[in-house]
Known about the structure:
By secondary structure, the chain is an alpha+beta fold.
Amino acid sequence: MSKTIxxxxxxxxxxxxxxxxxxxxxxxxxNPNGFKESLPSVVAFRNDRIMIGDQARNYAGxxxxxxxxxxxxxxxxTETIKLSAGSKTPxxxxxxxxxxxxxxxxxxxxxxxxxxxxxxxxxxxxxxxTKEAGIAAGFKQVVLLQEPIAASLAYANKEKSIDLRNSQWxxxxxGGGTFDVALVKIIEGELTVVDHEGDNYLGGSDFDALLxxxxxxxxxxxxxxxxxxxxxxKSEKGKYNRLWVRLLLDAETAKIELxxxxxxxxxxxxxxxxxxxxxxxxxxxxxxxxELIKSAIDSTAxxxxxxxxxxxxxxxxxxxxxxxxGGAYIPFVRKRIEELMxxxxxxxxxxxxxxxxxxxxxx
Length: 363
Ligand code: ADP
Ligand code: MG
């Protein structure tokens, strides 16, 4: 067994990544299928086959009952994820994702030890469940690291000229399904999470759902006859459940486009309750999207303020806000947080891989 740990893993609710520290450099490995750095944390079961990542994610449009995602939220609970293929525990599903990440390591070396990141909010039971998933995936040694610490390490190693001693900052992490914000500072030479807040049900996928519910569905209803379209879409047994799953994926694509463009289109096609075909492109503007997510973003600022109040701090006492997670790409998020908090927001590091990179530095 190797004596050093040099792999860092971001085991995310939505996306997971693996990176390695070697000779002063960090490499983020790419998926040999598709050459993306991130692997969707999704597992699908199709007869005897198990699909992990993008393939599993796409399969959700065809057979949602055999696709498991967002199981990180259930880590450390006794809840199981019920699929037609049988019940799976969050630990088992996480182990599948970890095993798949190991296959990203093209050098052929054994991946026996790793630093795996966890949210600052994870308690001992949730932390132990994460370790257990690592062992089930074949790691001989697993070291846990808090995500805001990993992000801060990635930042400190990128911006070497910034002196972080005697200062404190917040790490704002808007992921796919969860929001976490942490107050971090160096105490006795060690990066420490002093306080944190979060919402386990606020993230990018909620924005996708808002786009479908508030913009796409009303337009579909204007064009066709439906009894209760939204209910038939959202219920797992509903007539239009597969359409819901498909539209969510299209809404996500549109949302990502809106981070760099001022408008995006979603193609809608279906048959209404009377069998008439409905087929149209829906244009969504960036300002419509911003209006939809505004109250969610404002609630994240409220959580930041709670941390400040609890710790008798003012905005000016923070050196910066470090933004990570896929949501940090949304220009409105950065702008709104700067505006509401009056603190400069740094997003100079690659917000999607920062946590894996930081974990590798730590390793
Ligand atoms: P997690 O920490 O939950 O694993 P991530 O930090 O990878 O998740 O964030 C995933 C979320 O970020 C998804 O909802 C995805 O749609 C969103 N996202 C990714 N890239 C962008 C982008 N360029 N603009 C807006 N949202 C994005
Ligand atoms: Mg994350």
